[in-house]
Specification:
Blueprint: E1 2-9, E2 17-20, E3 33-38, H1 44-56, H2 62-66, E4 70-77, E5 80-89, E6 92-99, E7 102-106, H3 109-117, H4 120-123, E8 127-131, H5 138-158, E9 170-172, H6 182-188, H7 190-199, E10 202-213, H8 216-222, H9 229-232, H10 241-266, E11 279-281, H11 290-293, H12 298-301, E12 303-309, H13 317-331, E13 334-341, E14 349-350, H14 356-371, E15 376-381, H15 389-402, E16 409-414, E17 429-435, E18 438-442, H16 453-458, H17 470-491, H18 498-512, H19 525-536, H20 548-567
Parallel strand pairs: 3-16, 3-17, 8-9, 8-15, 15-16
Antiparallel strand pairs: 1-2, 1-4, 4-5, 5-6, 6-7, 10-12, 10-13, 11-12, 13-14, 17-18
Helix pairs in contact: 1-5, 6-7, 6-13, 6-14, 7-14, 7-15, 17-18
Length: about 575
């Protein structure tokens, strides 16, 4: 999947907004990674939200009603050019699907939705994986809507047979589920596994512990045709307590057996004949102390524990991840992945002991590992959070290596960190800026390639006036003002206060001389040459306000003028 453009109207702070993800719609570039920059509140996350809402509304129609906005979303998928449109005319919304310039128009969303879902494997990406680093739950809300729909579908399929996992198209990589990514990383991608071992010091994944509460709600999901009154009403009367308790244990045993069969059946091993030896049901926790348990609400206290052997066997990691995700979503399973690290030696520890930075890298590696097997898109909101500078610096290289074997995936990254975009070409960057309460998009005039981190911060990528600390910068400004005053006094041939100003300048120069080792010259020679030419012909341009399109236009005009001058 490759995004072409997105247009939004009446969505959040976007009105008549358009962002192009390629320079030329007729030729989609081969680069899989795009970066979105901008100030806080400029709409970076809202772009993610809009894209997800548009596609997710086909699976959860309530999203179409919750967010009534106009849009045009165009992307390339399966070698097809697909565009979705929602336009408002005369207080009524109209919907359009364009497939390779073939147009289908609808005046009702349900008809539009049915058309798309009738051929969803052609029109819809196989995976949309996204993460958000902030505090609000806008993206998670979309995921929850789709998840509810997915679980209903899974339950319906279950009534007919023991189903295999129906591929999950939407994956929200929240902190709660991030460690589940350890499984696909370990089994599906050699490069990701090496990165995990190198940067997180994980040397082995040993086993998975799965705990599921035997609540009435869960039991009904496992055994949809059973009567649960004997389980629910253990305190009905004194004479039947033991009898009812015994019956409930039989029912629970039946449910546990069925659950064990379900997990075993869905376990994505490459050799199915070995799968029965991989899952182990721990000793029944309730048979030895049922007299204590039956006088309580068993449906809120009883847990069953499964252990899955992971190290010696070959799994399909991405499918295993989806199985674990299904167990968490469906049964609220408590899942603990046990590992060995360089510091733990031969002792097993819980993966929850890994640091915040290590967990964030695992999230990043896992999302890219899963998407590698599918056509789709990954949306990363500030993947650099909690990472040390060295890892931030290497992040883009890690990403490029993970995507080296696919051209079916696009990664969109929101970031505020210059270390993450070091070395990128300007055509892969979009900068959002607010002007007169409207949000606009520009492509930087120059590449980030060849610039120092200091140079990036002071360029139009981040628009920082200086990288000096506040106190030092004030000293530079004070020295500048004193020097202007000194020049003015010389020009006026006045000796008044000149000696005092000279003394202040000497003092400031002495303080600042040690800080002047920094070279502030622009490292882009072409850009520097152009700036010099502009200054020579007397044109005044604020280079931080000029985007790539405008700069190319002015370059062309200036080149024409210079050629004419040379001819003369």
């Amino acid at each position: 999947m490759k995004l072409v453009h997105l247009e939004l109207n009446n969505f959040r702070n976007f009105n008549n907004f358009r962002i192009d993800f390629t320079d030329n719609e007729s030729s989609i570039d081969s680069n899989n990674i795009k970066f979105i920059l901008g100030d806080n509140g400029s709409g970076k996350t809202s772009i993610f939200e809009a894209i997800l809402t548009i596609i997710a509304s086909f699976y959860s129609p309530v999203l179409n009603e919750e967010k009534p906005f106009e849009y045009k979303l165009k992307y390339i998928i399966n070698n097809l050019e697909i565009e979705f449109k929602k336009i408002k005319k005369d207080d009524k919304y109209y919907f359009t699907l364009i497939e390779n310039k073939k147009c289908y128009q609808y005046d009702k969303f349900e008809s539009f939705r049915n058309k798309v879902l009738s051929n969803e494997d052609v029109y819809i990406p196989q995976k949309l994986i996204f993460s958000y680093s902030g505090f609000n739950n806008r993206l998670k809300h979309i995921y929850n809507r789709v998840k509810t729909n997915y679980l209903k579908k899974e339950n319906e399929r279950r009534k007919n047979a023991e189903p295999l996992i129906d591929g999950i198209r939407f994956i929200h990589s929240d902190d709660e589920n991030v460690l589940l990514y350890l499984i696909p990383i370990w089994h599906d991608c050699i490069y990701a596994k090496k990165a995990l071992m190198r940067y997180c010091n994980v040397k082995e994944i040993t086993k998975i512990e799965i705990k599921i509460n035997m609540t009435v709600k869960n039991l009904k999901k496992i055994l949809p045709h059973e009567d649960f009154n004997i389980y629910r009403n253990l305190r009905e009367n004194t004479n039947s307590k033991l009898k009812n308790a015994y019956k409930s244990f039989i029912l629970i045993q039946k449910a546990i057996q069925r659950l064990e069969e379900e997990i075993n059946f869905k376990l994505p091993v490459k050799n199915k004949n070995e799968s029965k030896n991989l899952i182990k049901l721990d000793t029944d926790p309730y048979l030895n102390n049922y007299e204590r348990e039956y006088i309580k609400e068993l449906d809120s206290t009883l847990k069953v524990k499964f252990t899955i052997d992971i190290a010696p066997n070959e799994y399909y990691g991405s499918n295993f991840y989806e199985l674990l995700l299904l167990l968490k979503n469906k049964y609220r399973a408590d899942i603990n992945i046990l590992i060995k690290t360089e510091t733990s030696g031969d002792k097993e520890i819980s993966s929850t002991e890994l640091s915040e930075g290590e967990c964030n890298l695992i999230k990043f590696l896992g999302m890219l590992t899963i998407i590698n097997n599918y056509s789709g898109m990954v949306m990363l909101d500030e993947p650099d959070v909690h990472l040390n500078p060295n890892l931030k610096y290497k992040l883009r290289d890690i990403l490029n290596n993970l995507l080296s074997n696919t051209n079916e995936t696009q990664v969109i990254i929101n970031t505020h960190d210059p270390l993450v975009i070091n070395g990128v070409e300007n055509t892969d960057v979009r900068i959002l800026h607010i002007e007169n309460k409207n949000i606009y998009v520009k492509i930087p005039a120059t590449d980030a390639k060849g610039k120092s981190i200091d140079g990036l911060l002071r360029s139009q990528y981040f628009n920082m006036e200086t990288t000096f600390d506040y106190e030092t910068m004030n000293k530079f400004k004070r020295r500048e003002n004193l020097y202007k005053r000194y020049i003015q006094l010389n020009f006026e041939n006045s000796s008044q206060n000149r000696q005092k100003i000279e003394a202040q300048l000497r003092e400031l120069n002495y303080e600042l001389v040690g800080k002047m080792y920094i070279d502030y010259r622009n490292e882009d020679k072409e850009y520097e040459l152009f700036r010099n030419l502009v200054e020579e012909v007397g044109l005044k341009i604020n280079f931080n306000d000029v985007d790539k399109t405008e700069l190319d236009k002015r370059k062309k005009q200036l080149k024409t003028i210079i050629h004419e001058v040379i001819k003369k």
